[in-house]
């Protein structure tokens, strides 16, 4: 039996609540299959840890995480700890130091999910977001702080290596699935970084003549995400633009309660990290009403990553069964079920499908 070692960082707010349900589903998949299992190690890192110790994780945290096959993260952020500290000293640190340069956000309207758009649309895209540099590189300077002449410089970093590898990753995904690739940039205004991005996209596309390609400015793309999402299949874009358009995607595909994400290190030199992307939602933490479906969807991404694609697909089907049934949903989806009841419903649906 193959055992996958998982570092679990439940994190802040509703993180621990939703992660518990994802683990419940992972364990059921392993039980039903019988050829693999999971070994979990929990870490108490996050904002509460920061308030006690003045840091978001242990000093040797990164070294400790290297021994795991994957990381399962609940949420980061809580009132009292500035967001730039909680984010950069845990989530972004892990992404960058483990070279998780691929952020995968599936934007798919599952059967039974609430439809935000008035017209019926096909919504089934994969957003491949650059995850290690770009606008989130952390480079810049703040001069003459507090004075009338104060100046702030925030520098986007776009290396040829970083830009080419994320675009090539998107093309490989499209090639495998027979889909098109759409690049989202802003070359008409960002005359260095985004012109460079567009040039590299054009260069890489020549290696994939069988893949249809499109290119949109980010403002136009944002509009078409809402007006005509069916035109997008595989989307590749920069760190900042990817962060923005995927939240639009979540809005048109059932809401943040269904927003899953994976931070992938394709070489597997370091562990990859899987997380719901709805945030810590401190206003409902502890009330047991948080929607666990995003955490469960990210667990299905983990199954895909481990080569268990059939189980990843079965988890999504089980989620669709729960959504279509409609009797066990959390308040954000107009239901009255608790977090653990929804998790159990997905687990039961997965069990029923196999039996």
Automatic annotation (TrEMBL):
Gene3D superfamilies: Isopropylmalate Dehydrogenase
Cofactor: Mn(2+); Mg(2+)
Chain ranges of the Isopropylmalate dehydrogenase-like domain: 5-346
InterPro entries: ICDH/IPMDH, IsoCit/isopropylmalate_DH_CS, IsoPropMal-DH-like_dom, TTC_DH
SUPFAM superfamilies found in the cross-reference section: Isocitrate/Isopropylmalate dehydrogenase-like
Stored Pfam families: Iso_dh
Catalytically driven reaction(s): (R)-malate + NAD(+) = pyruvate + CO2 + NADH
Superkingdom to which the source organism belongs: Bacteria
EC nos: 1.1.1.83
Family note: Belongs to the isocitrate and isopropylmalate dehydrogenases family.
Annotated protein name in UniProt: D-malate dehydrogenase (decarboxylating)
Native species: Alteribacillus iranensis
